[in-house]
Amino acid sequence: LLPDATLRERILKLAALPVNHIGIVTSGAALNEEELARLRRVLAALPDAVRPRVCASLGRLTSSQLEQLAGAGLTRYHHNLETAQSYYPRVCTTQTWAQRRDTVLRARRAGLTACSGGLFGLGESWEDRIAFAFSLKELGVRHVPMNFLHPHPQTPLAGQEILSAGEALRIIALFRHILPEATLRICGGRPTVLGARQHEIFVAGANALMTGDYLTTHGQGVEEDLAMIEAQGLEAGIHARR
Description:
The chain is α/β, with parallel strands linked by helices. It is 38% helix and 12% strand. Strand 6 (143-148), helix 6 and strand 7 (183-186) form a beta-alpha-beta unit.
């Protein structure tokens, strides 16, 4: 977790851009109590116009911790389910799919809007993708980040073939069909998988994207993304929807 002053400075810098949400993301299973207290202080001290635009991805927090963040002004919590429940054990053993689902449910019970999606190109089938989309629908998730695998050397999925741009676009279209009212946010792997076809995500059904860098890879610059959006006759800006 960045020092408080650095975190505040970066949040305010991003708040000057035409972006709807500013994500605070940490690695590891969850924040500890000291880190949580620090983050609450940072949130509480933000200007009233900025605080509602901050969302967080902080791991497997308890009901009490999530309620504390909501009390400090956080409105949205991100926690991915990653893939279909049936396929999940093939890619993750550090926590179960049910544990991930329960974190999403705790966030909603704490009064936070849930942001939950996953990663595609893990080797899952189309049936897995359909089941995954319906799981999100059943949970009532309205904000769905969609990531595409960018294989890293010396990881278990290093040899996994990268999805074609066409297949990635069909996945977006599938999720739009099953989740017609959701915000589909295209995130990690976008430049690698879609390349020169990134602009087609909007035709496929996406209506949001994550701009800037991702967890372990570089993304596309904010100015480039804004230019791409404008070239499609679309407008990027702050709106009131949560």
